[in-house]
């Protein structure tokens, strides 16, 4: 045993808080998801040069019914922003971010409870609120890393494939994706904290995230959905097309407020319940 | 309902109890829980909390730590309300869960240093010293550890902050007898230093070794609280002896401590309370073929003692 004498007053760095431990526990998964997101970007970007400015392709897409063009967001498909919107941000990239956030978020509190490690953890002088807040902080940081990987992959590698969108618009779009992911990750964390059941939190949250996406996307086609589409967080994040129109501070504020409210409700419920044996 | 206050002095009555359960009831939907529990843990004592599995021991302990909340009644720890002042209480409490679960992918060292950071507390040499006493290798990941070794990690986690109150749920389960004894010594040392220990077990002999007082819980109800010295004096031993000849009943029935004596051909059955030596001496002098001495189950001792006193 050589290590103990080298570290007289502390253990290994990085486990000084619950948030740090949560990030450490997720490290492997986060690396995997990052590789997945970057690979997806690479594949999509590598196809772009054959589409860029391809008039035949533009004609082909224009022959589609308007409804389909709207639904799949293929307007200006042969331009950089149009291509990114259709192939990356219309579904897959926000979905990857959201799935990561929901799977992890649902596990952050409920997983610790189901694995029964929470008993010993909360024997320390740590309030339940601090426990959930630190877990939430880890969720914020972890998803931010994945979102940053997405932005960097597109912003740095894109130009190599003649795809230029500009950092500002790209950041606005990635931010919107991240906000959507964090909102549902927070919902997963809150439901998990409120019930202690990870599977339930994952199931309900994933369903609601998909419903949110469908409500916003289908409302471009289905007129009777239009009055209720403001219930969809997708509508307020990616639905306002930040890639084309930049930051929408009012919508960002709205999503942040909803996310905080969901988190606060989870805290409130968690503070009041019996933890599972 | 049986009166549960302890008879006789257990600790100076001047200092207030460290833990005070006041008519605490916790009812679960599926049954179980604890009913109308009133119990004190005093400063400087080891209180053993004894009962079969499922009797309510773990529920009681988790109530104390605010992991679950009472349906009715209150719990004071260090004079503080267990719900409102939970964090302040837990700063001064060391806890070992009965169903210990640790972070599988971390090493024992990572787990313990993590908790030490959360406590703002024990220095690494303190942790190291405790681990050395228990011969615990801190570098291996938890997932590779045996049950007994995991239990050692839990014990170090509970003891490392030198807490004023130790709350231990079946602390020695999974430990070999040598380590059990070491743990008992550590608990006695904590009590001798004026700290309090609240310890659950379903094994009477374990509790008798380390505790000052014992509370018996059955079906969620506290049946009795007694001092261990009182119990030991009254604890009956059951002796079965087979002799070559036919034992004369009156030779044994009159021996000191014998409360019951039956003879069946070559077989002699005795119940002995208190000191065994006179009976053993008489048996040793006889033409003995076979001998067994067993302690009655904890329930038998406890309840027979309780019935006798009442």
Largest interface, with counts of residues having CB < 8 Å to the other chain, equals: A-B, 30 and 42 residues
Q: Mind telling me the C-alpha Rg of chain B? A: 22 Å
Largest sheet of chain A: none
Total count of strands of chain A: 0
Give the quaternary arrangement of the chains. heterodimer
Number of strands of chain B: 14
Strand content of chain A: under 5%
Describe it.
The complex is a heterodimer of chains A (about 280) and B (about 300). With about 280 residues, chain A is mainly α. Chain A is built from 13 helices and no strands. In chain A, α8 (about 130-155) packs antiparallel against α9 (about 165-195). In chain B, strands 6-7-8-3-9-10 form a 6-stranded mixed beta sheet, with helices on both faces. In chain B, strands 2-1-4-5 form a 4-stranded antiparallel beta sheet. A 4-stranded antiparallel beta sheet of chain B has the order 12-13-11-14. In chain B, β9 and β10 (about 220-225) form a beta hairpin. In chain B, α3 (about 110-120) packs parallel to α5. Chain B is globular, with a radius of gyration of 22 Å. The interface of A and B includes residues 9, 116, 119, 125 and 126 of A.
Report a brief summary of the structure.
The complex is a heterodimer of chains A (277) and B (310). Chain A has 277 residues and is mainly α. Chain A has 13 helices and no strands.
Write the SSE topology:
The complex is a heterodimer of chains A (277) and B (310).
Chain A: H1 3-6, H2 18-51, H3 55-62, H4 66-71, H5 80-89, H6 92-114, H7 118-121, H8 128-157, H9 167-195, H10 198-218, H11 233-236, H12 242-245, H13 249-272
Chain B: E1 19-27, E2 33-41, E3 46-50, H1 57-64, E4 72-77, E5 80-81, H2 86-90, E6 93-96, H3 108-119, H4 124-133, H5 147-159, E7 165-169, H6 177-192, E8 196-201, H7 204-210, E9 213-218, E10 221-227, H8 228-234, E11 236-243, H9 249-253, E12 258-264, E13 267-273, H10 277-285, E14 288-294, H11 298-309
Parallel strand pairs in B: 3-8, 3-9, 6-7, 7-8
Antiparallel strand pairs in B: 1-2, 1-4, 4-5, 9-10, 11-13, 11-14, 12-13
